[in-house]
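Re: the multi-chain job from yesterday

Posting the exact lines I submitted so nobody has to dig through the queue logs.
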Amino acid sequence: MNAIAALKRLVAPRSAGGFSLTPELIGDIFRHARPLGHHEDRESLNLGFGFLYYGVARTLRPEHVVVIGSGFGFSVVCLALALRDNGLGRLTFVDPSYSVLAHGPLQTMGGTSQWDDATRVEARFARFGVADVVTHHRMTSAEFFARYDAVCGGEIQLAFIDGNHSYANVRADFLGCVRRMRRNGYLLLHDTNIYIRELVRHAGVKTWLRRVARHKDAFEAVDFPFSSGVALVRVLEDEAWQRLEASSS
Ligand SMILES: C[S@@+](CC[C@H](N)C(=O)[O-])C[C@H]1O[C@@H](n2cnc3c(N)ncnc32)[C@H](O)[C@@H]1O
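And the result, structure tokens for all chains:
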């Protein structure tokens, strides 16, 4: 764990905020954390899957949430608000701040280099009162998992995977998280319903989800195939990653 993350853990316990999702705050989420493909509806202040992210984190009360990839911070903010309202937990956010223009569509779709500048990153999260909950690491998920213990360390109870969507990357991100989870860890996989990209093998989220779901003793999964789609996966046993490593490429 780095010094900043360690310091943040010392500040606390945060007082439980109760319920922060006021109409004003939801309006701010639409304006500044800009959901893309989360089955949201701005007119009716419906955060779509954002309510699911918030609700899952409130229900599970995780101590450590990891988010891989975010265009404008929507998933991070919904999850971090839940941790703030729980009065417990830290969120590790990993994103190298790619942009589709600079790095090309094989590295990112929907990326616009929102995470280049640490001061602006902090300001973005401070607007929602979650700057002390979130620690951003500007690196790819591969770099993150290679240095996991030095970068943040600890068990993961809830993960949100939305970085590079290629099959190989989604698989590596999923395994990287599950290796640090025990029974009753949970993962959210965004973009399970982008079938044209999946068809041309530009994405492999759904394909990976199907592989995971075959291991019925180790995982249970439910897909929400609306808008870009999201799936919720529950880990049923400790060391569940071994089942996947043994059987799939
Ligand atoms: C949230 S994704 C957008 C995904 C979008 N929903 C889609 O359909 O492709 C965009 C973000 O993922 C990040 N990203 C891309 N590759 C990554 C990687 N290997 N590790 C972590 N984040 C990554 C980019 O930097 C960008 O900010």
